[in-house]
Amino acid sequence: MSSAEATPGHLVWRLAMKWRTAVDRALDPLGLTHAQYVVLASLYGMNRPSQRELADWAGLEPLYVSKLARALEASGLISRTRDTVDTRTVRLELTARGRSTVEPAIALVSSLLDRLLAPLGDRTAAFSRELVDLLAVPLD
């Protein structure tokens, strides 16, 4: 490994790309991409968030979430409805079809994550805390 490849930034990039590629391949038989999965899996654990709330939680650009949400709605996996109080706000919710699609996807991705983290053993929780700390560092 060259010195350029050994930098933490490069290693984070490579791990992120490895993860995204693996998730895309695992979800392909279900007809989902990694980005679509992020939206669906997030909705599985949230109660009718706004597109903005989901974007903030998932770390995605709001415009990208809007585009993904429109496509997922067209596929019958989510519903998008205007908020009754603030009509500028769009609320997202899984449909029954979305729920039945995302449940096996969550199991697949969870299994994949277990395989990825297996080398850490009992250090996994500490690693997760360190990732949270790094994500909290403002870079803009």
UniProtKB/TrEMBL annotation:
Q: Note the SUPFAM superfamilies from the entry.
A: Winged helix' DNA-binding domain (SSF46785)
Specify the domain of life of the species encoding this protein.
Bacteria
Q: Which PROSITE patterns match?
A: HTH_MARR_2 (PS50995)
Q: Which UniProt keywords apply?
A: DNA-binding, Transcription, Transcription regulation
SMART domains documented for this protein: HTH_MARR
Q: Where is the HTH marR-type domain?
A: 5-140
A Pfam short name = MarR
Q: Does the keyword Transcription apply?
A: yes
**InterPro entries reported for this sequence:** HTH_MarR-typ, MarR/SlyA-like, WH-like_DNA-bd_sf, WH_DNA-bd_sf
Q: What is this protein called?
A: MarR family transcriptional regulator
